[in-house]
């Protein structure tokens, strides 16, 4: 009996109560489950089709919800009925969209046509720049490839390339019609989803907590609040900053007389939705247009960019974004690269808020595990073997 009890004690001590062994076993189980799921991927095809059908309206409804919900809440506190406030906001939003389309579309169409007409000039400028470089590229084929690319970049070839891309992407007229139908359906479904999200935003958390056991409601409630706060702050902050950046670039480019000022400002606004990387991507078209125009124009564009970066970095971003996400910039860059590689443009846009939500959930689960587990002692002092980064302590010789 003693030997059996000793074996049980040994097994418990070194297997069941060993955190490393348990962690490895959990990791092995998770990997086995993932391997089994990859072998049954065909079972998830209907789910993927369902998600792709509703991803567009749900995504944009969520973005507009975080933008408009604070205004709806404020109007409701002023005594205005929630339905009337939502309908009023919808009417104002529709009028703004119609005004923006009627104002910007003719300008964008004119600037795009002007850019197409000036492609031969840009081609000549690029070839002249390459030929007058003060150093040898070492390979004449590079110059020939650039010349061939620029010489073939006319309107007719552009149209042929667009047609080939459309045919390759959609695989025929039927797929194009299906994609357009799906887009129109999502565009019509999105306002309906947005209306009910704004109308019943206060009921959704209560309905979710209703099905959660009483013991876990505080943790789930805190998890929902923190995740909602981080996502809402991120979405509102990034969109407002992007709008402000677009307005500043539009004013600055128009003052210095840069070609396609409005189009470049809109590109900058869309690119600035992506943190850090978007700011660098946004200035590339403006630098190219300025470089082929004149050196003096390039200097003026650089001055506009410096002023915009100063105003954005010192006043706009700290006041609007602050440090709500509490994510290190290096972590954000890694997330953008990984999400862009895995999911493309949507991953770049949604990677950071998705990581913020996962971080909140994992942090809350870890705190719950610390609370209900006897493996941690909050009062225990953490002692390091030496000064950071764990250098060997210097021992003085005793006299």
Report on the architecture of this protein.
With 399 residues, the protein is mainly α. It contains 15 helices and no strands. It has helices at residues 2-16, 19-39, 45-77, 82-117, 119-131, 140-151, 155-170, 173-199, 203-210, 217-256, 261-271, 277-293, 295-320, 329-343, 345-372. Helix 10 packs antiparallel against helix 15 (345-372). The model has no long low-confidence stretch (mean pLDDT 75).
Summarize it.
This protein has 399 residues and is mainly α.
β-strand number: 0
Average pLDDT works out at 75
The percent range for helix content is over 70%
* Rg over C-alpha atoms, rounded to the nearest angstrom: 29 Å
Q: Helix and strand string, N-terminal first?
A: HHHHHHHHHHHHHHH
Number of helices: 15
Q: How much strand content do the residues show?
A: under 5%
Q: What does the largest sheet look like? A: none
Separation, N- and C-terminal Cα atoms: 58 Å
Explain the layout of strands and helices.
Layout: H1 2-16, H2 19-39, H3 45-77, H4 82-117, H5 119-131, H6 140-151, H7 155-170, H8 173-199, H9 203-210, H10 217-256, H11 261-271, H12 277-293, H13 295-320, H14 329-343, H15 345-372
Helix pairs in contact: 3-4, 3-8, 5-6, 10-11, 10-13, 10-15, 11-12, 12-13, 14-15
Give descriptors for this structure.
single chain, 399 residues, mainly alpha, 15 helices, 0% strand, globular
